[in-house]
Automatic annotation (TrEMBL):
The lineage of its organism: Bacteria, Bacillati, Actinomycetota, Actinomycetes, Micrococcales. PROSITE patterns: GIY_YIG (PS50164), UVR (PS50151), UVRC (PS50165). Belongs to the UvrC family. SUPFAM superfamilies: C-terminal UvrC-binding domain of UvrB, GIY-YIG endonuclease, RuvA domain 2-like. This is UvrABC system protein C. It comes from the Bacteria. HAMAP family: UvrC (MF_00203). One of its GO terms (molecular function) is excinuclease ABC activity. One of its GO terms (biological process) is SOS response. Residues 16-95 form the GIY-YIG domain. Interacts with UvrB in an incision complex. NCBIfam families: PRK00558.1-5, uvrC.
Length: 682
């Protein structure tokens, strides 16, 4: 624990301008990001008597080793920069809104030549229109099935589409008139795109236009006594109406609004949002957040709005296509209804208005339908928090108990909040791979997993598992020392002076390259005394003395410590042993996955893999031009250089590689399917 007075900047050094600040720990990791109208006043509040601070703020300032700040021109700029830094650094003491589930969206890939409608989760992709989120994927498929009758756009995968295009026969959906079959030329790509645009307009809330259009066509068909056509149009109208009725009207004035609800206590809070478009609920999302910092409900709302609409700012500030930029602007509605106004309402409103390109109203609903809907959203948040507490009550307790048991069993000074585990995988010494998995606070942190290719002293792999473990531990912690030294923020010697406080630039280098700069509290290796001894020797050679080490042997689940003749035995039913087993099993799974990827790639090697400047795209171009590896062998440098993307130097390298791989004096082999596959390594 650090004394805040040791890194407190002089009051005269801190400007009184608006800006954003960040606290770093002794390892240089950003642990908290905040913004202020007056940087001097805000930062001074952290350096008062520690006993007067909130207990969460006490933990933060005593964990930190330095503070930095950046001056900005306006408070709106501070709001945007704070969001960017929180997203970049992922500080442990900032409130983070994490979805309580991976919500599915109805996505239309307008960036493709033939747009496709599908269920999509995860990060949003450029050139794709999103509708939702929905509570369940089956709700998307049910709605899509109804609408394909009227908007028969493509829903098949790339493989199915390519196969249908090659064979000239559409898939089942094409035969039952739920796809316009652009794969076989029933409609042109332009007509299909217009169909996809109409589908997107309908999903965006412009429903009556299409209903009126179908009604007009139905009446015209009936007047012309084309009764079968009129009946089909009638059924299309009913399908649109059923799809529309699935979202009941909640706001009679056809308002576009996002309605937020918030329920919480001193430790946790649950948030729900209903996305209302055209007066109908088009999507719903929920978050549960741990209050790791001392924040009010108003500050929680401000952070929430940054989280929800910050992705729109990322799209608008980047080089996205016009469709993605329009979708990002549409994601910000005309009204944002919140349970309590954020502290800087004017700045938040100005920020959202800038994102939308039109006026946005942030307010608390007081009466009428909007007030009733806000109460419904609040009740949803209340139920979500109750469900979360039921699910996590035992989990929080068992994780804390597990970490405490490991601390006591291994004689550690503190609980191992960050655990790294290593495992080696190979097949009789070939394709040697190793894994590093990271658990923080007893939970996996998959963004920091790493895979290693074991090289050995000769570049052909290690002689055995202990040598492989020694190499992996050496490489990981040598990188740790190099990263700390390179950053210049923290000296390699832990006893040296902590990083200095002061002003920094707004533009910061990405943190992704700094993952190895943070040491674990405990290193676990998969194995017994030999593997532990190899890892201990690697740490000793590098001078690492502040990282605990143990090994977990599979046979009897014994915990081995360096230099000990007898293992530490944990109770079979202990939470500490369960956590170590889970860490070990995750490292084993990740190592096997990496080994299988390398083995699969090695089994499909091509003679062209080592040609400088020849990547997958150029190899594919060569295959398309010559048709097979045999014909490529027969081609001259000039003929190869005529292929798109190829130059004379690369063509000469290809000829040399093929000549070196051909047996001397052998006749040209007969052309086979394997020749074609060999060029692409498939």
């Amino acid at each position: 624990m650090a004394d805040p007075a040791t890194y407190r900047p002089k009051p005269g050094e801190i400007p009184t301008s608006p800006g954003v600040y960040r606290f770093r720990d002794a390892h240089g990791r950003v642990i908290y990001v905040g913004k202020a109208k007056n940087l001097r006043a805000r930062l001074s509040s952290y350096f008062q008597d520690v006993a007067n601070l909130h207990h969460r703020t006490q933990t933060m300032v005593t964990t930190a080793a330095s503070v930095e700040w950046t001056v900005v021109g306006t408070e709106v700029e501070a709001l945007a920069l704070e969001y960017s830094w929180i997203k970049e650094f992922d500080p442990r003491f900032n409130v983070k809104y994490r979805d309580d589930k991976s919500y599915p969206y109805l996505a239309v890939t307008m960036g493709e030549e033939i747009p496709r409608a599908q269920v999509m989760r995860g990060a949003k992709r450029p050139g794709t229109r999103y509708f939702g989120p929905y509570g369940h994927a089956w709700a998307i498929r049910e709605t899509l099935d109804l609408l394909l009758r009227v908007f028969p756009i493509r829903t098949c995968s790339a493989g199915v589409y390519k196969r249908a295009h090659q064979t000239g026969r559409p898939c089942l959906l094409g035969y039952i008139d739920k796809c316009s079959a652009p794969c076989v030329g029933r409609v042109s790509p332009e007509d299909h795109r217009r169909l996809a645009e109409d589908f997107c307009d309908f999903m965006a809330g412009d429903t009556q236009k299409f209903v009126r259009r179908l009604e007009r066509k139905m009446q015209e068909a009936s007047a012309a006594m084309e009764y079968e056509q009129a009946a089909r149009l009638r059924d299309d109208i009913q399908a649109l109406q059923r799809a529309t009725e699935k979202n009941a009207v909640v706001l009679s004035d056809a308002t576009d609004a996002d309605v937020f609800g918030l329920v919480g206590d001193e430790l946790e809070a649950a948030v729900q949002v209903f996305h209302v478009r055209g007066g109908r609920i088009r999507g719903q999302r929920g978050w549960v957040v741990e209050k790791v910092e001392d924040v009010t409900d108003a500050e929680l709302v401000e952070h929430l709005l940054q989280q929800v609409y910050g992705s729109a700012e990322d799209v608008l500030s980047g080089g996205a296509d016009p469709q993605s930029r329009a979708a990002a602007r549409d994601a910000v509605p005309r009204e944002v209804l919140v349970p309590v106004l954020p502290p800087d309402t004017d700045q938040v409103t100005a920020w959202l208005t800038g994102l939308r390109g039109a006026r946005v109203d942030v307010r608390v609903p007081q009466r009428g339908d909007k007030r009733e809907l806000a109460e419904t959203v609040r009740q949803n948040a209340e139920h979500a928090l109750a469900l979360h507490r039921t699910r996590r009550a035992g989990d929080l307790t068992t994780r804390s108990q597990a970490l405490q048991e490991i601390q006591e069993a291994l004689g550690l000074d503190q609980a191992p909040l960050r655990i790294e585990c290593y495992d080696v995988s190979h097949t009789q010494g070939s394709y040697q791979s190793a894994s590093m998995v990271v658990f923080e606070d007893g939970l996996p942190r998959k963004s920091e997993y790493r895979a290693f290719t074991v090289r050995g002293p000769e570049g052909e792999g290690a002689r055995d598992d202990t040598a492989a473990m020694h190499e992996v531990i050496t490489r990981r912690f040598r990188r740790y020392l190099q990263e700390r030294s390179r950053l210049g923020e923290v000296e390699v010697d832990p006893g040296d002076e902590a990083p200095a406080s002061g002003e920094v630039a707004a533009e910061v280098p990405p943190e992704k390259g700094r993952r190895f700069a943070y040491p674990p509290n405990l290193v676990v290796v998969d194995g017994g005394p030999p593997q532990v001894a190899a890892a201990a020797r690697a740490l000793e050679e590098l001078g690492i003395t502040d990282v605990a080490l143990c090994g977990l042997a599979k046979r009897l689940e014994e915990v081995w410590l360096p230099g000990e003749d007898y293992p530490v035995i944990l109770q079979r039913a202990s939470e500490g042993l369960y956590l170590l087993q889970r860490v070990r099993d995750e490292a084993h799974r990740f190592a096997i996955a990496q080994h299988r990827r390398r083995r699969s790639k090695g089994m499909t090697a091509s003679v062209l893999d080592d040609v400088p400047g020849l990547g997958p795209a150029r190899k594919k171009a060569l295959l398309s031009h010559f048709g097979s590896l045999r014909r490529l062998r027969e081609a001259s440098v000039e003929e190869i250089a005529t292929v798109r993307g190829m130059g004379e130097r690369t063509a000469a390298a290809v000829v040399a590689a093929l000549a070196a791989s051909a047996p001397r004096g052998a006749a040209p082999p007969a052309e086979t399917d394997a020749d074609r596959a060999g060029m692409l390594g498939a």
